């Protein structure tokens, strides 16, 4: 049985392996979350691993890991999100924007009324809070504020 001292472990420690393991961990986390966040740290860990292979000081490795990771995160994440359309899927409510509905309960100034849109009843408010939109009027959904549909009279 061989006893390994702490000194032996320290002298045989290879930081490039640690950086590769970190890169793999970041890649695995990204695969499960798909938030385009940890993948950039994977790139930083790969750069740090390459620096470790050429015996760069640990401070340089850590600094380059942080710099590369945050540069990738800051500059390439928005581009990747646009290309991959991450987070751009419309919810059912957002899909109603621009649709035409009918007022089923008059929308009073600075108050709410009811609108039927796509077969559903919505509590609605006028975008111009000072106007009245009469029952039976056609309206266009312009946005959603909380659980209220914001509408304008159809032109």
TrEMBL record:
Subcellular location: Membrane
SUPFAM superfamilies (UniProt xref): NfeD domain-like (SSF141322)
Location (main, coarse): membrane
Residue stretches making up the NfeD-like C-terminal domain: 93-153
Key words, A-Z: Membrane, Transmembrane, Transmembrane helix
GO CC terms, sorted: plasma membrane
Membrane topology, record value: Multi-pass membrane protein
UniProt KW Membrane keyword: yes
Transmembrane segment boundaries: 17-41, 47-75
InterPro entries listed in its UniProt record: Membrane_assoc_protease, NA-bd_OB-fold, NfeD-like_C
PANTHER family per UniProt: INNER MEMBRANE PROTEIN YBBJ
Protein name as annotated: NfeD family protein
Organism: Clostridium aminobutyricum
């Amino acid at each position: 049985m061989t006893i390994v001292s702490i000194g032996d472990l320290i002298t045989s420690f290879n930081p490039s392996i640690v950086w590769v393991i970190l890169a793999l961990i970041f890649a695995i986390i990204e695969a499960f979350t798909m938030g385009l966040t940890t993948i950039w740290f994977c790139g930083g860990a790969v750069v740090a691993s390459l620096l470790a292979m050429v015996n760069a000081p640990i401070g340089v490795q850590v600094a380059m890991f942080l710099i590369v990771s945050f540069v990738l995160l800051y500059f390439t994440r928005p581009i990747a999100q646009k290309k991959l359309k991450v987070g751009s899927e419309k919810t059912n409510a957002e899909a109603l924007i621009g649709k035409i509905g009918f007022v089923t309960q008059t929308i009073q100034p600075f108050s709410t009324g009811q609108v039927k849109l796509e077969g559903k009843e919505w509590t609605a408010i006028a975008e111009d809070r000072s106007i009245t939109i009469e029952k039976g009027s056609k309206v266009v959904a312009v946005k959603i504020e909380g659980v209220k549909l914001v509408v304008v009279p159809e032109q």
